[in-house]
Each structure stands twice: as structure tokens, then as C-alpha cells.
Amino acid sequence: MNQADAVFRQMNKLGKARVPFLFVLDFELQKPFVIPLNEIDPQQIRYAINGTGPDYGKPEELPENSFFLPAEADKKHYLQAFEQLMFHLGRGDTYLLNLTMPVPVETNLKLLQIFEYSQAKYKLWLADECVVFSPETFVTIQKEMISTFPMKGTINADCEGADQQLLDDPKEKAEHYTIVDLLRNDLNSVAENIRVEKFRYLQKVFTWQGALWQTSSKISGELPSNYLDKLGNLFQKLLPAGSISGAPKKRTLELIQELEKYQRGYYTGVMGVFDGKNLDSGVMIRFVEQTKDGLVYKAGGGITVNSNAKTEYEELLQKVYLPFTFQSAKP
Q1: DSSP secondary-structure letter at 194?
Q2: Hey, what long-range contacts does 312-319 have (CB within 8 A, 24 or more apart)?
Q3: In angstroms, rounded to a whole number, what is the distance separating the alpha carbons of residues 269 and 307?
Q4: Are 37 and 53 in contact (CB under 8 A)?
Q5: Pick the residue with more confidence: 120 or 212?
Q6: pLDDT digits (tens, 9 = 90+) for 142-191
Q7: By the 8 A CB rule, do 284 and 131 touch?
Q8: Rounded distance, CA 82 to CA 87, Å?
């Protein structure tokens, strides 16, 4: 049995026993883990789900001259990958692919400080490894009802009329339709009576550089009565998240590995908490990782046949942000 299979079986076991637990599932499922909430060491793992989590005490004060600056990103590699992807899109190998890359960042903030000060729906800190501050819900489960909330479409909110510009953009609209269709099919593998409850609603995300508009949808379905006994099986069928992979999923995942040429790791994986009754989980986007060469911020966006390389690269860099305010000036 590999590690992923062991983790999914443990999720089944804990769900059946109604034991609250945290689960963290990386994109490649090479280092997933699940741990009962009462066994978590806060010196190694910290989390918050929709503002709910343990009380970790007063956060450490930020440095007087805090800064967080993207370093030089590998634009050449991105544009090469983009060009290769457009060939595959034109040939019909994929209709939508979420293309990502690591962007080096310079900062005098600790990963734990970023966790403590970030304002986000889903937060996770793994000591000496990474910090997540994601706005995107993956799935929620309440009383036999499962819902997923794909987030696709981002624009700078500072420009007048930016929200309507995002809603009217034909590329963003087509991308969102594709993801909603993919997630409907994914949910259909674990639930019945699938329906889109809300389509392309706007959410504003606040960052230290300003606000962003993003669009999401809500898709729901009804689970079988014994779903708590099979939480691991459920996630095994749904992963990886459609919003950060693409469609059709199988071929698109092969292309992601071919084009990106790096391991995403926990970035674009899924984290969540089962509280003994209900489950809430998020997609691990907005992500800073500690590497042997320094900190990197992993980011990306959905690419379709109508995408523009310059626009997509600029959107990727827009997503390199921290969701709190401080003085951004390098001393």
C-alpha cells in the first residue's frame, strides 16, 4: 500500500469513528498526511478554516520595515511553456490547462508571521516548509450535501468598472464554463442530483498591493447516507481539484507534468478539517514555500486557446501577494 492509499484509508477510518481530523493532500499525492486534531503539535503545524482554529496566542510583531518583493521570475520558461501549450490547445489535446510556475520572493517576514497576519479562508503553516493563505474553497460537506466552489477569473479591482469587465471578458467566461462543467462531472462520481446553485458570482480579495476581483460558482449534490464512512474514497475520486488542473483532466495532468517541469508539492493540493460532523476544505493556492535556494511563491492561471501570453503572465504576477497590509519598502 502506498502512502496516498494509507491516508485515504485513515480518512475512512476516522470519518467512520467521527474523530475530528486535519488532512493535507499534495498535488502529486507523494506526501499526503492526515492527523487527528488532538494530536497536532502547534510547533510544527498550524491551521485555520474560515476563521476557525486553535488559539495560538498573540502573533509575533512584524519587523518595522517589513517587505515582500517578487524577484526576477523565469519569464523565458513561462513563455516557452505557453507556446507549447497553445500547440496542444490548437490540436484539441486540452481545452483548459492551469499553467503555474515558482516565482522567487525576497522578504524579511517569517513563514509563521505570514500565517498569523494573513486574512484568508484557508490557512496552513508547516514548519520550515510552507505557508498557505487561500481564498478558494474545494468542497464542503454538511448533512449529506456536498458543494464545490471553483474559482476562475481574476482582475485588478482598482480600475473603474473592473468587475463588469471581468464578467464580460469572453476568455474568462469560456474558462469558467469549462471548469464548472468539469466540476459537475467530478461531483457526479460521488453524489447525485448535481446542480449549479450560483454561477460566476464576484468576490473581492484584499492584498497589500490593492484589491482583486475574482469569480466563483457553487455546485452541489446529494451524498449517500454512509458518506462519512468513505471520506477518503470520496477525495480520492475528486482529486486533483479541477480548477487547478484543467479539462479533460487525465490528458491535461500529463501535459502539466510535461510543460511545467517542476514538482508542485503541496501547492494546488487540498487541505481541510473534518470536525466530527461536517467537512470544509480549500485548494492550496496563494502559497509560499521554503526551498534550499530561498523562498518561492508558486502561482499560475488557466490557459485556453483564446489566452494571450503577456496578459496571462501579468495575471500570474498579480497573484504574488500577501493578504494583509504593511509597509512594503526594502530597508
Answers
A1: E
A2: 312/82, 312/99, 313/75, 313/78, 313/79, 313/82, 315/154, 316/73, 316/78, 316/100, 316/101, 316/103, 317/70, 317/73, 317/103, 318/154, 318/156, 318/212, 319/154, 319/285, 319/286
A3: 24
A4: no
A5: 120
A6: 989 999 988 766 666 777 777 677 776 777 777 777 888 888 899 999 99
A7: no
A8: 9
pLDDT at 51: 85
Taking Cα atoms as reference points, which of 313, 197, 304 lies closest to residue 247?
304
Sorting pLDDT into bands at 50, 70 and 90, what band is 331? very low
Spatial CA neighbour of 138 closest among 276, 279, 278: 279
Per DSSP, the three-state class of 121 is coil
Give me the pLDDT at residue 152, please: 66
Which among 288, 260, 280 has a CA at the least distance from the CA of 139?
Answer: 280
Record the cell numbers describing residue 54, joined without a space.
486553535
d(CA 113, CA 230): 36
> Do 291 and 111 form a contact (C-beta atoms < 8 A)?
no
pTM: 0.89
Domains within the chain, CATH numbers bracketed: 3-144+222-240+262-318 (3.60.120.10)
Which is higher by pLDDT, 174 or 239?
239
Residue among 164, 105, 54, 116 at smallest CA distance from 295: 105
Q: What single-letter amino acid sits at 296?
A: V
3-state class of 212 per DSSP?
strand
Q: What are phi and psi of 247, to 5 degrees?
A: -145, 140
